[in-house]
Amino acid sequence: KKKPVLVVLAAGMGSRYGGLKQIDPVGSQGEAILDYSIYDAHKAGFETVVIIIKEAIKNDFLETVGARLKSAPVEIRYAYQELEKLPEGYSIPEGRTKPFGTGHAVLCAKEAIDGAPFAVINADDYYGVAAYRLAAEYLNAANTTDNNHFCMVGYELKNTLTEYGTVSRGICKADENQLLTSIVERTKIFKDPNGARFEDENGESVVIPNNSPVSMNFWGFTPEIFRDADVSFTEFLADPNREPLKSECYLPNVVGQLINDKKCDVTVLETTAQWYGVTYQEDK
Q1: CA 45 → CA 18, 48, 239, 284, distances in Å?
Q2: What is the DSSP letter of 165?
Q3: Which residue, 138, 145, 237, 279, has fewest beta-carbon neighbours within 10 Å?
Q4: b/e map of 69-93 (b: 16 or more CB within 10 Å)?
Q5: What's the CA gap between 244 and 110, in Å, rounded?
Q6: pTM score, two decimals?
């Protein structure tokens, strides 16, 4: 049985942040958040890490974070999310430079994951060692053949907000067995005295309770996810209503659709930990 692999999403462009936040130092010795994430993951039992980047940042990444990781006590593998990695019959929309989103990124890492169960995190999010332990325990107990039972680390919304602007969050609901029943990606969420608010598709302001469970893109999967994620990504590309230059295939939306279609179940591993991230320069 293969041991769980940690997959790190580091190919995002960081447009709101204004730079390559995946490699931006935050620690006293120049460490990036990713250095801390891999340290915590190793403490929780992960021995292999797959980092998804773009070819455009490869040199900068390898000269900074990548150079430090050469001495890390884990095996480091790299996968590359590139626009041209598309299903047969599809092409890159003219003028598009933005990656196709986290759903596409995970598909680009399939070969590097090599049939193991795996956790997925964002490179620029600090989750805390408790989250990795929750995911590792779940994945170590999982079968990897014909197993569509997945997991997600769920944070309380109030522990994931920033003072400096809006954020996007996957708002979750779970049943009495802690199985995820729905996940909806909300954008432009901001702090409010009553909790948090977001603007809906009509521009109306909607309140979200402080303790609402949210996805911070910390998932646990078996290899079964690839078959259905590939179908979801193809459907995304075929959607005539998507915005060709900016629309993204979000991993939470992929999972949400699989739940709706009863093709998987997702156990919500709840944590009261404080999440930290650098969505904006001021968050540093």
Answers
A1: 34, 9, 40, 28
A2: S
A3: 145
A4: beeeebeebbbbbeeeebeeeeeee
A5: 25
A6: 0.88
